[in-house]
TrEMBL record:
It comes from the Bacteria. Transmembrane segments: none annotated. InterPro entries: DUF427, DUF427_sf. Residues 16-103 form the DUF427 domain. This is DUF427 domain-containing protein. Gene3D superfamilies: Domain of unknown function (DUF427).
Length: 107
């Protein structure tokens, strides 16, 4: 990590639910919480707890110098709402096969 930049990943202990347009896209008690300098906490949800059948792969890819290359998925009315790191950097290997949403409710 760059000096002053940290990423921590821990097993979350809260229920995470993602709803868009009244439809549940993901629900999990097994989400990982990723905390990164300068960013809000992000919940990475295991693929098994995500309604992948509702999502369409996007052509969008972004590169994070700390996590790797992200791939994105969309809904018909929400482009690039979901992302994942299919081949994350070794320092954040725990997020492999986990999806992150811009909108996640935590309870």
């Amino acid at each position: 990590m760059t000096e002053g930049h940290t990423i921590t990943i821990e097993q979350g202990d809260q229920h995470v639910r993602v709803v868009h347009g009244g439809q549940v896209l993901a629900e999990s008690d097994r989400a990982l919480v990723l905390r990164e300098t300068g960013c809000p906490p992000r919940y990475y949800i295991p693929a098994e707890d995500v309604r992948l059948d509702l999502l369409t792969a996007s052509d969008t890819h972004t590169v994070c110098p700390f996590k790797g290359t992200a791939s994105y998925w969309s809904l018909p009315d929400a482009a690039d709402l979901v992302w994942a790191y299919p081949d994350p950097k070794p320092e954040v290997a725990q997020i492999k096969d986990h999806f992150c949403f811009y909108e996640a409710e935590v309870s």
